[in-house]
Amino acid sequence: MTYTVALIPGDGIGAEVVAAVKPLLDDVAEREGFEIEYTEFDWGSDRYLQEGAMMPDDGVDQLRHYDAILLGAVGHPDIPDHVTLHGLMLPIRKELNQQICKRPTELREGVQSPLRGYEGGDIDFVVYRENTEGEYADVGGREHRGFEHEVAIQSAVFTRKGTETVVREAFEAAAERDGKLTNVTKSNAQAYGMVLWDDIVEEVGQEYPEVTVERLLVDAAAMDFVRRPEAFDVVVASNLFGDILTDLGAIISGSMGLAPSANLCVDGDAPSMFEPVHGSAPDIQGQGIANPLATVLSGAMLFDDLGEDTAGDRLRQLVDEQLADDSAPRTPDLGGDAGTDDVIKDLRARL
Ligand code: NAI
Ligand code: MG
């Protein structure tokens, strides 16, 4: 079996970790008896600086027929972040209908959490983030620039369909896991969109009597990610809240360099996109010290999505083994002094 994967290394450490991880993915695929045929796209900030666009006009269409997409990160210190995000990532997520962003948060054995008293296995939950609308809808405008009466309007969009899609997937996940769903909104202050969201959670919940639903306002949820992260199983949240909470989730489970993510097209035949949660990290770019494990674990989610779960499990097991071994190489974010390539070399040797 051969799968086609569109590879978008992107900017900064995104490109570094993707280049490092690719041979490991190939090794695992070969062992499991399948092959990946990559097509690499040199889209990103360098292209923007040369040609004025992060990707070509028909970029999203070029991606449509691949089995999956693997993205590093985008972001450049000389380009405003809204330009890089709106020029590449958001159009891909939206136009390929990747309505759900799934982000597991796990404190693995051998990893130090900044939370006192937490050890490997104590934190294990998954966030389902709505991924194509909500607060990231491209609806609004800015007028009268520079005048005292300058005005900007930014609207959030919540549709019944979009909300129901992510809520239903979250219930399905909770039913398969520990049977607990935490619904995070801010419906005291955002009394339209988020109240619709809460209503939909209530409605869909009727079909999952085995799932216990907890409701939290996002500010309380932020507190509880720190105070009692062990209490979460599946968390469902809007685009913005899910974005913020998953950085918090990444750091309580040890490092931004360990957090994977999947942008899933569940409703249609477009490919899903896999990427580390972290960005291009200009502060450590070019030093060869970026932690590649978030990308390895994103690769595992990509394999799962292709139906190659054994390969996905194999990758997760390799990462677990490496992290549990104190003598294994670790990048500085995990307290070590190893480089990106050392970590991958060690994983390949273990395989
Ligand atoms: P960031 O995630 O790039 O970095 C945050 C902090 O975590 C930095 O101190 C960085 O050194 C560290 N870090 C991140 N990934 C790491 C890794 N794999 N190994 C070791 N340390 C790691 O977020 P930041 O600094 O807010 O954004 C930098 C650029 O990335 C911006 O241009 C931003 O727009 C973009 N960005 C892109 C994302 C994407 O493409 N999905 C997501 C987040 C930010
Ligand atoms: Mg983010």
From TrEMBL:
Sorted UniProt keywords: Manganese, Metal-binding, NAD, Oxidoreductase
Pfam families: Iso_dh
The protein's required cofactors: Mn(2+); Mg(2+)
PROSITE patterns named in the record: IDH_IMDH
Coiled-coil positions: none
Record field: transmembrane: none
SUPFAM superfamilies, alphabetized: Isocitrate/Isopropylmalate dehydrogenase-like
GO MF annotation terms: magnesium ion binding; NAD binding; oxidoreductase activity, acting on the CH-OH group of donors, NAD or NADP as acceptor
Domain Isopropylmalate dehydrogenase-like: 4-347
Keyword NAD belongs to the record: yes
Superkingdom: Archaea
Protein name: Isocitrate/isopropylmalate family dehydrogenase
Organism of provenance: Haloarcula terrestris
Taxonomic classification: Archaea, Methanobacteriati, Methanobacteriota, Stenosarchaea group, Halobacteria
